[in-house]
UniProtKB/TrEMBL annotation:
The gene is ackA. ATP binds at residues 16, 202-206, 277-279, 322-326. Catalyzes the formation of acetyl phosphate from acetate and ATP. Can also catalyze the reverse reaction. It comes from Rhizobium sullae. Keywords: ATP-binding, Cytoplasm, Kinase, Magnesium, Metal-binding, Nucleotide-binding, Plasmid, Transferase. This is Acetate kinase. Homodimer.
């Protein structure tokens, strides 16, 4: 059997899996899988060019039973898990890099739960489920917020009383694992460009932008929560606090209902009234669908303009994630608003999703670079194992408790 690292990237209704061979301090991908939950829950795993799919129980959730089935599928393909790495959305001010999931670390993570109430429960459920199924292997955590810990206090501060800032009500930024990977890929592609002022646009179901200098995060569109910044599939992006107060007083009267509304009923879905999926909206010709896409592109361009202020200019724009990598129409829509900044795209290169999509005369280089969060999780898992000089000691994960 191949001894492997298994990475877990948990969402509210899906679970992405990566399988990596550990070789000479490197993580080499051997397979990928995704468990989709909902009406027809299913796990699909691909390795060596071969797919395997299993139906999951109706009503399956992210729990020990799901992990047992998913990992069982991986083991049947000849892989032996020896370490598990997890994507954890929020590290608060406590975690600015990957860590070994020892009992005290998990308890500290549980204290951070209120900072990411939608994302923490499934992630911690996976940690416990792996501990139950494989009690003797180490587990590691990689934090989406860690990449942005380099930002200055000016970039992270909200205009609220200092005591609240010090208590953790501040800007954090997310999608850090994606930005870390893309920054590394840009260094391989063009080291000189990577050393400059780069805006990376992670455009997927969740979406944000990050301004970097020499691959270091300087500013980002998302702030205190993953609701902030540009419009997303079902999230509104930046929203006047007065509008939130108005909604709470007149429409919802309950913070939990308002939270569900903001996470699941706004964004492209809310504006179009049809879908939060860019692919669906691009094929639909109703005015509301077009308006949703136009708003999406307009706000992305506006955020690039704001980040240009933070960076003192822009040398390159990198598009990544599902929409950023595969939807030329969106990239064209963004570039339409940035001619003043000197951005011009090559129509043919953009349509082909080429690596470099800017026109020769463009003053800004525009690129399309695929992201791979699971690769970063695997790399960081190895980093933690080496740091702690571990092979696979037991890792105790206590059940959730209110503290």
């Amino acid at each position: 059997m191949d001894r492997v690292a298994v990475t877990f990237n948990a969402g509210s209704t899906s679970l992405k899996i990566g399988v990596f061979r550990l070789e000479d301090g490197l993580a080499l991908r051997l397979g990928s899988g995704i468990a989709t939950l909902g009406d027809e829950p299913r796990f699909t795993f691909r390795s060596s060019g071969r797919d395997e799919a299993i139906d999951l129980p109706s009503g399956a959730g992210i729990d020990a039973r799901l992990v047992s089935q998913v990992v069982g599928c991986i083991v049947r393909r000849g892989f032996e898990p020896i370490v598990a790495g997890h994507r954890i959305v929020h590290g608060g001010q406590a975690f600015n890099g990957p860590v070994l999931l020892e009992p005290d670390v998990v308890l500290r993570m549980e204290d951070l739960g209120p900072l990411a109430p939608v994302h923490f429960p499934p992630a911690l459920a996976i940690v416990r489920a792996v501990r139950s199924a494989y009690p003797d292997i180490p587990q590691t955590a990689s934090f989406d917020t860690a990449f942005h810990s380099s930002q200055s206090s000016l970039a992270t501060r909200l205009a609220i009383p200092r005591a609240l800032h010090e208590a953790g009500v501040r800007r954090y930024g997310f999608h850090g694992l994606s930005y870390k990977y893309v920054a590394g890929e840009l260094r391989k592609h063009d080291p000189d460009l990577a050393a400059g002022r780069v805006v990376c646009a992670h455009l997927g179901s969740g979406a944000s932008l990050c301004g970097m200098v020499d691959s270091v995060s300087i500013d980002t569109s998302m702030g205190f929560s993953a609701l902030d910044g540009i419009p997303m599939s079902t999230r509104p992006g930046s929203l006047d606090p007065g509008a939130v107060v108005h909604l709470l007083r007149n429409n919802f009267h309950d913070a939990d209902r308002l939270e569900d509304f903001l996470y699941h009923r706004c964004g492209l879905l809310g504006v179009s009234g049809k879908s939060g999926d860019v692919r669906v909206l691009l094929e639909d010709f109703h005015p509301a669908s077009r308006e949703a896409l136009d708003l999406f592109c307009f706000r992305i361009a506006g955020e690039i303009g704001r980040l240009a202020v933070s960076l003192g200019g822009v040398d390159a724009i990198v598009f990544t994630a599902g929409v950023g990598e595969h939807q030329p129409e969106i990239r064209t829509g963004v570039a339409h608003h940035l001619g003043w900044l000197g951005l011009s795209l090559s129509e043919s290169a953009n349509k082909m999703n080429a690596t470099v999509i800017s026109a020769r005369e463009s003053e800004i280089v525009a690129l399309v670079l695929p992201t791979d969060e699971e690769q970063v999780i695997a790399n960081e898992a190895i980093e933690v194992i080496i740091r702690h000089k571990l092979s696979h000691p037991p890792v105790d994960v206590p059940a959730h408790q209110s503290r």
